[in-house]
Design brief:
The chain is of the alpha+beta class and 253 residues long. Helix content is 28%, strand content 11%. Among the domains are: 116 residues, no CATH class; 57 residues, no CATH class.
């Protein structure tokens, strides 16, 4: 019996050991691939256009420069630099239209068409009493831009050229008769001329001028040719001053 009990105890021990749960084999660690966080698409920085405080239309300024002084409305100086380096008759017609904000002066003395900016100028055609001009840039000794010993302005004429005038040579109040420099018809762009010819008075005057000025290219100019030539200029100025829309200029600074 004693032996039998020993055998039973050993058998029970073996059964208990065999039924013990086996330790789970360690799982083979799979190589860790860290999930890359999706790259946020960098928002494309839209290049902010520099806020054009001046404003342009057809490359012609429409608002006063920020450098506004003395209560005057002047175009931006970097644009004036380009304008006064050449002659732009199309631009002049646009700027002299009624409703534009530019400061206008009226000559009270005759003056030579001197361009102190160093650009082109239409020599020979003096600024006359009562001529309307547009102020472009103030010239003073304090700013480093000087006209001889007298301060003044660079101005735009109806013919598209720049001229420099002195203080005392002009006034801001228009005279009873407002004059203008000569607008050269052939210097205007084709689109501008075609638009002007839609005015019956301009078209009629132009045809009359062409009939009477056929020999002008050979130096033969009659009184009738001179008369109709001057009349055509007057009609063009009248048409522009009426406020009609104009095509975009053919040549700009």
């Amino acid at each position: 019996m004693r032996w039998f009990r020993v055998v039973c105890l050993l058998s029970a021990f073996c059964i208990a050991c065999g039924s013990a749960p086996r330790a789970a084999a360690p799982e083979s660690e799979a190589p860790r691939h860290e999930a890359k966080a999706p790259k946020r698409a960098k928002a494309k920085k839209k290049k902010k256009r520099k806020s054009n405080a001046v404003g342009f239309n057809n490359k012609i300024p429409t608002k006063c420069s920020k450098r506004k002084k003395r209560g005057e409305c002047l175009p931006p100086q970097h644009w004036v630099d380009k304008l006064c380096d050449g002659i732009y008759p199309d631009v002049a017609l646009h700027m002299f239209r009624p409703g534009t904000p530019w400061q206008r002066f009226y000559m009270v003395a005759r003056a030579e068409p001197y361009n102190a900016s160093g650009g082109m100028s239409l020599l020979g055609e003096k600024l006359e009493y009562g001529e309307e001009v547009i102020a472009l840039r103030r010239r003073t000794g304090r700013t480093g831009v000087q006209v001889g010993d007298t301060s003044g302005y660079d101005v735009l004429r109806w013919n598209g050229s720049c001229a420099t005038i002195h203080d005392g040579d002009f006034r801001t109040k228009p005279p009873s008769v407002v004059r203008h420099s000569r607008v050269e018809w052939r210097k205007l762009s084709f689109d501008i001329r075609r638009a002007l010819e839609t005015d019956p008075r301009i078209s009629e005057t132009y045809e009359a001028r062409r009939r009477h000025c056929r020999g002008a290219t050979m130096g033969k100019v009659t009184k009738e040719c001179e008369e109709y030539d001057s009349r055509l200029v007057e009609e063009v100025v009248r048409h522009v001053r009426s406020g009609v829309a104009l095509p975009r200029p053919g040549r700009v600074p």
